[in-house]
Amino acid sequence: MQPYAGSVTTTSATTGSAGDFDDITSSESSLRRFLHGLPGVDQVGAEARAAGLGTRSIKTTAKNFAIDLAIRMVDLTTLEGQDTPGKVRALASKAMRPDPADATCPRAAAVCVYPDMVATAKQTLGSSGVKVAAVATAFPSGRAALDIKLADTRDAVEAGADEIDMVIDRGAFLSGRYLQVFDEIVAVREACATPDGGSAHLKVIFETGELQTYDNVRRASWLAMMAGAHFIKTSTGKVQPAATLPVTLIMLEAVRDFRDQTGQMIGVKPAGGIRSSKDAIKYLVMVNEIAGPDWLDPDWFRFGASTLLNDLLMQRTKMTTGRYSGPDYFTLD
C-alpha cells in the first residue's frame, strides 16, 4: 500500500538514534521545532483515503471474524455522574459474558469507569481477564493542577486499575506549550507505577474535536508517544466530533511510523460516536491497511464505546441463527 501524500517518514537524521528523543525534548524550542517539522497532513488526501477504505466490504467468514474481534476490542464504558455500584457491576458482568445465551461469544477487553468505581469493577471482574480502565487527570477537561491529576491517577491505580485513560491539557497544547504537555504525560506515566514494580497502561486522550487541525492530531500523537504513552486515544466521548475515520487514519500512520523509527508499538483507541458493526468494521479495515495486521489485536487497538457492543451482538446473532434479535434482546447500558 502506498501512503497518501503527507504521510510521515521520520529518519534517524531527524531524531538521532532510534528511540532517543532526549535532545528533542530538552527544551521548548527543540520540541516545537521537531513537532512543527513533521510533514503537514494533506487534508483532502487523508479524507479521501479514509472514505475509500470505508467503502470496503467483507463477507461471511471474514465478517464473523471481524465482529468477534471487534467485541474483544471494546472498552465497555460508563462515565456519567449518575453511575452507581449496581450499574458498574452490571456492566462488568456484561463485559465478561456479553451474550449470556451463547458461551462462544468472546468477552470485551475492558470496563472503563471513573476512579471511584474501580474497586467495584475490579471485584466483579475478578480473574476473568477483562481489564479495568479508569479515566483520570481531571477528565474530561484536564483543567486541574498537576498534583491533583497525579493524585487522581494514583488513587485509581491503588484501587486496582489496570489502565489509566488520561486527558491532555488542550489549552496548553493549542498555546504551543508542548513541553508542559510532554512533562505532564511523563509524570502521569510515572504515577501509573504499581506496588509490585509493574505499571498500569497509559492511554493518552487528545480530544481531537478540540485540536482544530489534522496537523495538530499528528503533533499530539508524536508528543504522546515520545512521552511514553502505551495507547493514543481520540476522544473523551464528551465533545463532538469525537472519533472520525480521518483522525484515526492519521493516528494509525503515526504509530506505524513510530514503530518504524523506534521499534516500539503503540496502541490506538478511537472513542465516541462509534455505534454500529458497520462502523467498527470500517475501522478494522483501516487498521489493517494503514498500520498493518499486527495492530488487529485488543492489546493494540480498542473501541471506546457504550452502545457499540449491542449492535455487534445483534449482528453476531443474525449470522449465527439467521434471525435478527430485537434491540431489547440484550441489556441496555
Question: Which descriptors would you attach to this protein?
Answer:
TIM Barrel, 333 residues, eight-stranded parallel beta sheet, 8 strands, 45% helix, alpha/beta
Would you write up a description of this structure?
The chain contains 13 helices and eight strands. It is an alpha/beta fold and 333 residues long. It has a single domain (30-320), classed as Aldolase class I (TIM Barrel). Strands 7-6-5-4-3-2-1-8 form an eight-stranded parallel sheet. Helix 5 (85-96) links the parallel strand 1 (74-77) and strand 2 (110-113). Helix 3 crosses helix 11, helix 9 packs across helix 10 and helix 11 (245-262) runs parallel beside helix 12. Mean pLDDT is 91; it is low at 1-19.
Any chance you could write out the topology, listing elements then pairs?
Elements: H1 12-15, H2 28-37, H3 43-53, H4 60-72, E1 74-77, H5 85-96, E2 110-113, H6 118-125, E3 131-135, H7 146-158, E4 163-167, H8 170-174, H9 178-191, E5 201-205, H10 214-227, E6 231-233, H11 245-262, E7 267-269, H12 277-291, E8 303-305, H13 308-321
Parallel strand pairs: 1-2, 1-8, 2-3, 3-4, 4-5, 5-6, 6-7
Helix pairs in contact: 3-11, 4-12, 4-13, 5-6, 7-9, 9-10, 10-11, 11-12
List the total number of helices: 13
CATH superfamily: Aldolase class I
Inertia-based shape: globular
Helix content: 40-55%
Order of helices and strands: HHHHEHEHEHEHHEHEHEHEH
Can you tell me the number of structural domains? 1
Class computed from helices, strands and strand pairing: alpha/beta
Top-tier CATH class: Alpha Beta
**Sheet with most strands:** 8 strands, parallel
Q: What gap, in angstroms, lies between the N and C termini?
A: 39 Å
Total beta strands? 8
CATH topology name, in short, is TIM Barrel
Task: Quote the average pLDDT.
Answer: 91
Q: Which architecture would the CATH scheme give at its second level?
A: Alpha-Beta Barrel
Please compute the radius of gyration using only Cα atoms. 19 Å
Uncertain ranges = 1-19
**Proportion of strand residues:** 5-15%
